[in-house]
Write a structure and sequence with these properties.
heterodimer; A: alpha/beta; abc type-2 transporter like fold; 2 domains; 5 strands; B: alpha/beta; 4-stranded mixed beta sheet; 8% strand
Chain lengths: 356, 352
C-alpha cells in the first residue's frame, strides 16, 4: 500500500467523481430532505393553531398574544393582508384589533374584536384560539375569574417533536447516500467502462484503488453528515465527539459502498439493490420515528450502531463512555468489512492479471 | 406511417421497459408504495380534543359550554382510572373536578380544577389547553369583549378533507413523472446503443418512431396513474374528467421525456435531468398539502393545473365548468411540450 498512489487516485476520484450524478445525488437529496422536513414538520404537522393579528391601534393585547403560547402568531400590516392570509390558509384565524380597543376595554364599554376564520380550520383550533383570547383579555382587565386551573404533567419526560425524531433518518440518509453510493457508483462506472481492468497495467493495486474510492465516500459522508447536524441545530454539547462518531459512521458506510460496488454488475443493478436493501439500512431510523414500537428491534440492524451514538450525543447529551459499547460494535463491523475488501481486492487482482 | 411496424415497436418498447430491472422494480414498487401510503394515512381529520372527566358531583356544565366546539368529555368513574387513561394516551388530557365544583360555580365562589396531561400532548398545546378552561367562561368573564367570527371560504368544520386525499393528486403526479424517467431512459439507451439509427434503415420513418414512443409513454404513464386513482377511490367522482386530466398530464410528461432524452446521454444523465424535472413538478403539490406555504409563482409550473384539477374534482366535487382553465392550460402545455420534445429529439437524432 503506497500512500502517495492512494493520494493520487483519491485526487482523480475527486476530479471525476464530483461531476458524477451519484455525487450530486448524495449531496442534494439530504439537503432537500432537510428543507422539506423543516418546512413540513415545522408547520404542516404542528398541532398549534396559527393566528394572524392586525393591530389598528397600539393595543397591549398584541404583546400578550406574542408572549402567551396558545397559538403560533404572526402580525400583519393591514386587514386586507390578514384577510388574504386567512383566505389562503396561511393562518387558521385572523384577529382584527380596532384602534380604540384598549380605551374601550378600560371604560368597560365591551369593545368588539373581529376574528376571521379560515373555513378549513379545525373546530378545536377555533375553540382554543377564542379561549386563549378571552384569557388574555381577562388578564388585561385584571379579572382573575372564579376558576383556578392546576396542571399536572404525568410523563417522566416530554416526547420528542416529529422533526427531532426525523433527525436520525436524515443523518443516516446523508451518511449512507454519500458514503455508500459514491464509491459504489464509481466502482460500477469503472467496471462498465472497463477502466478498472486497466489498473493492472499500472503500479497501483486494486486495494489502493478501492481505498481511494472509499476515502472519497468517507469525506463526502462526513461532510454532509456534519452539515445536516449544523442545519438542524443539533450539534449537542460534545461537537468533537460527534464529529468523530460521524467519521466512523462515514467509514462504515464507505466500506459497505465499496463491497456493494465490487459485487454489483451495473448502474441499474446498483439502483435496484439500493432500493431493495434501503429499507434494511434505514430501518433503525424508521423504528426511532415511531416511539410506540419496541425500540430494541433496531439493535438487530447494523446501521443501528451508526445512528445510536449520534442520537445519544445529540439528543441525550451522552459522553464518550456512554456510547463506547455501540462504537465498539461499529468499529468491529468496519474492521470486518475492510478485511473483506482486502481479501476481495486480492482475488479480483489475481483474476484480472490472469485475464490480462 | 406503417402501423404494423409501430405496433411491433410498441411491443418491443414495453418488453424492454419491463426487462430493465431498475424501472420495472420502481414502477411496481411506487404503485404499491403510493397506494400503501394512501391507505396507511388517516381517512378522517380528528378535529376534536377528547378529555377524560372525573367529576364526583356529576357536573355537566363543561359539556354544555363546549358543545359543537370540537371539545368532548368522557366521564370516568375514578381519578385513578383517569390518570391511567391519560398516561396510556387515550385522551388529550384529563380534567378532575372537586366535589363542590358545581355548587361553587353556581354560587360564584372561587373553585379549581386539575388538568392531567401526558407526553402525548404536544408541548405547544399545553398553554392552549390550559387557556381553554381558564378562558372559556369559567376562569374569567367573557363578557368584557364581543368576539365576532367571520368564516372565510367554505366552512369545513365536521367535513375536513383528510391529508391522504390532499396528497392523492401529488401521488398521481409522482407516478406520471416516474414514467417520464422510464421512457427517457428507454430513448436514451436507444441513442446510446445506436439502435435508433438501425431502425431508420427499416420501413419505419421518424414520425412512426415518435408515434410509437409517444403511445408507449402516454399509455404507461396514464394507465398507472389511472390505476392508482381507481384503487384509492379517486375515480368515484367525475371519473371521465379525472381520466381526461390524467391523459393530458401524460402528454405533458411524455413530451418532457422526449426533452430529457434529447439532452441525456445515458441513464445517469436521465436520472440527473429527471430528478430536476421531478422536483420542479412536485413543488405545486405543497400548495395543497400545506396551504399558504408556497407562493403564486407555482402557478407557472404546469403540474399545478393537474394537481389543482384533480384536487378540485376529487376533494371538492368540481365539474368540467369549474376547471376549464386547468383543462386549457394542460392541453396547451401537454401538446406543446410533446411537439417541442419531439422536435428537439428529432433534431438530436439527425445530428447523431
Amino acid at each position: 500500500m503506497n500512500p502517495r498512489r492512494v493520494w493520487t487516485l483519491f485526487r482523480k476520484e475527486m476530479r471525476t467523481g464530483s461531476s458524477n450524478f451519484f455525487f450530486i445525488f448524495a449531496l442534494v437529496i439530504p439537503l432537500a430532505l432537510t428543507l422539506v422536513v423543516s418546512l413540513a414538520f415545522g408547520t404542516l404537522f404542528s398541532e398549534q393553531a396559527r393566528l394572524g393579528v392586525v393591530d389598528q391601534g397600539e393595543s397591549q393585547l398584541i404583546d400578550a398574544i406574542a408572549a402567551f403560547d396558545f397559538a403560533a402568531d404572526r402580525t400583519y400590516e393591514s386587514e386586507a393582508a390578514l384577510r388574504g392570509a386567512v383566505a389562503d390558509g396561511l393562518v387558521d384565524m385572523g384577529l382584527v384589533i380596532p384602534a380604540d380597543f384598549d380605551a374601550a376595554l378600560d371604560a368597560s364599554a365591551s369593545p368588539e374584536l373581529r376574528l376571521l376564520v379560515w373555513g378549513e380550520s379545525r373546530a378545536s383550533d377555533r375553540a382554543l384560539v377564542v379561549a386563549g383570547i378571552n384569557r388574555l383579555i381577562a388578564d388585561q382587565t385584571g379579572d382573575a375569574g372564579q376558576l383556578t386551573v392546576n396542571t399536572v404533567n404525568l410523563s417522566d419526560g416530554d416526547e420528542l417533536p416529529v422533526e427531532e425524531r426525523m433527525l436520525p433518518l436524515l443523518v443516516l440518509m446523508a451518511v449512507i447516500l454519500g458514503g455508500s453510493l459514491v464509491p459504489a457508483g464509481s466502482l460500477v462506472d469503472d467496471k462498465t467502462k472497463h477502466t478498472l481492468r486497466a489498473v493492472v497495467t499500472t503500479p497501483a493495486t486494486f486495494a489502493e484503488t478501492f481505498l481511494a474510492k472509499g476515502l472519497l465516500g468517507v469525506a463526502l459522508a462526513w461532510f454532509i453528515g456534519v452539515l445536516i447536524l449544523i442545519l438542524n441545530n443539533a450539534f449537542g454539547a460534545q461537537p468533537l465527539l460527534l464529529v468523530g462518531v460521524i467519521g466512523l459512521s462515514a467509514a462504515f458506510s464507505a466500506a459497505f459502498g465499496v463491497i456493494l460496488g465490487i459485487f454489483v454488475k451495473d448502474t441499474n443493478a446498483l439502483f435496484a439493490t439500493m432500493k431493495l436493501i434501503g429499507i434494511l439500512l434505514y430501518a433503525p431510523a424508521l423504528i426511532y420515528l415511531f416511539p410506540d414500537l419496541p425500540q430494541a428491534i433496531a439493535q438487530v440492524f447494523p446501521t443501528y450502531y451508526v445512528i445510536a451514538p449520534i442520537v445519544a450525543i445529540t439528543q441525550e447529551g451522552a459522553t464518550f463512555a456512554d456510547v463506547l459499547p455501540d462504537l465498539a460494535v461499529l468499529v468491529t463491523f468496519i474492521a470486518a468489512m475492510v478485511a473483506g475488501i482486502a481479501y476481495l481486492s486480492g482475488q479480483i487482482e489475481r483474476r484480472e492479471l490472469i485475464r490480462a | 406511417m406503417n402501423w404494423q411496424v409501430i405496433k411491433t415497436l410498441i411491443i418491443k418498447d414495453v418488453t424492454l421497459y419491463f426487462r430493465d430491472r431498475f424501472f420495472a422494480i420502481i414502477t411496481v414498487l411506487s404503485l404499491v408504495a403510493y397506494a400503501g401510503i394512501y391507505f396507511a394515512m388517516p381517512s378522517s381529520v380528528d378535529e376534536t380534543l377528547n378529555f377524560a372527566l372525573f367529576s364526583p358531583d356529576g357536573e355537566t356544565t363543561l359539556d354544555m359550554t363546549f358543545q359543537g366546539q370540537g371539545v368532548a368529555f368522557e366521564s370516568l368513574e375514578a381519578e385513578e382510572a383517569l390518570i391511567n387513561a391519560v398516561e396510556a394516551g387515550d385522551y388529550t388530557a384529563g380534567v378532575v373536578l372537586p366535589a363542590d365544583f358545581s355548587a361553587n360555580m353556581a354560587a360564584g365562589a372561587p373553585t379549581e380544577l386539575t388538568l392531567y396531561y401526558a407526553a402525548n400532548l404536544p408541548a405547544e398545546l399545553r398553554e392552549a389547553v390550559e387557556a381553554l378552561f381558564s378562558g372559556s367562561g369559567f376562569g374569567a368573564s367573557t363578557g368584557a369583549v364581543i368576539i365576532n367570527q367571520e368564516v372565510i371560504g367554505v366552512d369545513r368544520v365536521g367535513q375536513q378533507i383528510p391529508l391522504r386525499d390532499r396528497a392523492l393528486p401529488m401521488f398521481a403526479v409522482l407516478i406520471l413523472i416516474i414514467e417520464t424517467l422510464g421512457l427517457a431512459s428507454l430513448i436514451a439507451e436507444e441513442r446510446e446503443t445506436r439502435t435508433v439509427r438501425a431502425l431508420m434503415v427499416t420501413p419505419m420513418n421518424i414520425s412512426g418512431l415518435f408515434v410509437s414512443k409517444g403511445i408507449v409513454g402516454v399509455s404507461l404513464a396514464f394507465s398507472q396513474a389511472a390505476l392508482l386513482m381507481l384503487v384509492t377511490g379517486g375515480l368515484s367522482q367525475n371519473p371521465l374528467l379525472v381520466l381526461l386530466i390524467l391523459l393530458l398530464g401524460s402528454l405533458l410528461v411524455t413530451g418532457l421525456a422526449f426533452l430529457i432524452a434529447s439532452f441525456a446521454r445515458d441513464m445517469m444523465s436521465v436520472m440527473g435531468w429527471g430528478v430536476a424535472a421531478l422536483l420542479i413538478l412536485v413543488v405545486p403539490s405543497f400548495t395543497f398539502l400545506a396551504p399558504g406555504l408556497s407562493s403564486d409563482w407555482v402557478q407557472l409550473v404546469p403540474s399545478y393545473y393537474l394537481i389543482d384539477a384533480v384536487d378540485q374534482i376529487v376533494n371538492l366535487g368540481a365539474g368540467a365548468a369549474d376547471i376549464t382553465i386547468n383543462l386549457l392550460v394542460l392541453l396547451v402545455t401537454g401538446v406543446g411540450t410533446l411537439v417541442l420534445g419531439g422536435y428537439v429529439l428529432r433534431e438530436k437524432l439527425y445530428e447523431s
